[in-house]
Amino acid sequence: MKVAVNVFQTLFSTLLAGSLCVSAPVLAAKKADFYHFPPGFLWGTATAAYQVEGGIQNDWSAAGLDAGQAADHAKRYEEDFDTLEKMGTPAYRLSIEWAKLEPEPGKYNRQALEEYRKMLKSLNQRGIQPMVTLFHFTLPTWFAQKGGWTRPENIQDFVRFCTWASGELKDEVHWWFTINEPLVYAFKSYDAGAWPPFQKDRNMALRVIKHLILAHAEAYRAVHAQDPIAWVGFAKNITLLEPNVAGNPLDQAMTGFQSYLFNEAFWDAISQGELNFSVPGVEPIQIPYNKNLHGSMDFVAFNYYTRYMITASGAQVTRPGVPVNELNWEIYPEGLLKVLRLAHKHAKRLHVPIIISENGLADADDSQRRAFLLQHLQQIWQGLQEGIPVAGYLHWSLMDNYEWADGFAAKFGLLDIQRKWRPSGLMFQEIVKQNGFPAAWLEQHPLPAK
Ligand code: FCB
User: Fold this and answer.
1) CA 343 – ligand 1 centroid, Å
2) What is the dihedral of CA 30, 31, 34, 38, to 10 degrees?
């Protein structure tokens, strides 16, 4: 059975009361000797099925991007959950693989379902809340072959899957994420041509975004029909976008446009129940008022990794000389506070709490991760002081895994793929135990350049 939710509801009411009654001022950065987090804060780690489980056949493997045995988590999950128990984290975000569970349209694989049920039970028995994503970038091949998210009539396939999966697993799962990073998926797969089905068609990417918004709304309602008291949301990637040259009006205009589309449009569509996005040269996204869409989010969840600077031509660049990780992503902890303030604007409209559903970096020798972790947590602490209702922080990732088109080279784990703890993993364990960390650690762990 799932872990009692009262403690979290209490935490949320406290956080929300703080944020909604006081008109949260933007405070000057405070200093503390010890960065305390609120009681009941949801510490955790995050993974996704295809990246960790191993042996999955889906549209990625069919396209030649085969994760193979990945991190062998399907075989080693008990051992991995022992690790979570040692880490002391009250939450764990994972995804269930649609391709495994519904290998043919409408035909479900009971054995795969029972295996997931066992996993989820095992987490609950350990007092760890599973947070389950229903679509994390990968699809059954039959769904991809019929056009995937490019065709509005395909949305019903996903909704059917969500109805079935949430109905079957509702006793074990209280937290559902319908979709992971819809805009990243749409642009990588349909505009950049980097992920299956490798298309380069911007209008198609915009159509896919529209269908993902509608799919989310229907999936949200479907899960709630199975379990009215479930918490249902989705994970939005928020990359901080800022003008490359601060005073340049063209850079500013392009930043405003990109920032709205990438970061805010999906949230706006949910809080208003409609979306009218149009710019010259591309197909508009028009969603007339839809009551299923309106308010379809019980929490605001976002994944924060980095910042890009935007030029007038629309290019997303990393400024030379800034600290970066091994994938050349800028390490910009202050950006997390800026993004929290943005998320708060949307969370306030719906009176819901905020979860940081992913944050981490590629750092094979673990030379940067401790500083990264501490500096990002310091920004979250600052957000909490401003009254932003942050209910949890999930680090990406528990162990090294298959990093999409970057393969196994990018190492995001608190543990490596052999399950050896990195020093940052031990530090995270200590932070969770103390529900915070001493300020002195920030000085003891400066960020080295790479
Ligand atoms: C996010 C994805 C996640 C992982 C991290 C590094 O965009 O949601 O699966 O690949 O990046």
Assistant:
1) 19
2) 0
DSSP state letter for 260: I
Residue 328 CB: number of other CB atoms within 10 A? 10
The reported pLDDT for the residue numbered 14 is 44
Tokens of 147: 């056009």
119-152 pLDDT, tens digit per residue, is 999 999 999 999 999 999 999 999 999 999 999 9
21-to-80, 337, 344, 391, 392 alpha-carbon distances in Å? 41, 21, 14, 17, 21
Please answer whether residues 212 and 155 qualify as being in contact, where contact means their C-beta atoms are separated by less than 8 angstroms: no
For residue range 35-68, list pLDDT tens digits in order: 999 999 999 999 999 999 999 999 999 999 999 9
Tell me if the pTM is above 0.90. Answer: yes
Q: What is the token pair recorded at 210?
A: 């529209």
Q: What is the largest CA-CA distance in the chain?
A: 59
Atom of ligand 1 minimally distant from the CA of 235: 8
Average pLDDT rounded to a whole number, residues 354-368: 98
Contact status, residue 377 vs residue 431, Cβ threshold 8 Å: yes
d(CA 140, ligand 1 centre) in Å: 19
15 has a pLDDT exceeding 60? no
Which of the listed residues 60, 94, 236, 303 should we mutate to test ligand 1's pocket, taking the one with most ligand atoms within 8 A of CB? 303
- How far is Cα 63 from Cα 57, in angstroms, rounded to an integer? 10
C-alpha distances (whole Å) from 117 to each of 35, 121, 169, 277 are 37, 6, 7, 41
- Regarding the beta carbon of 403 and ligand 1, being less than 6 Å apart is answered yes
- Residue among 42, 145, 40, 1 at smallest CA distance from 357: 42
396 lines ligand 1 (CB under 6 A): yes
Going along the chain from its start, the domains and CATH numbers come out as 5-444 (3.20.20.80)
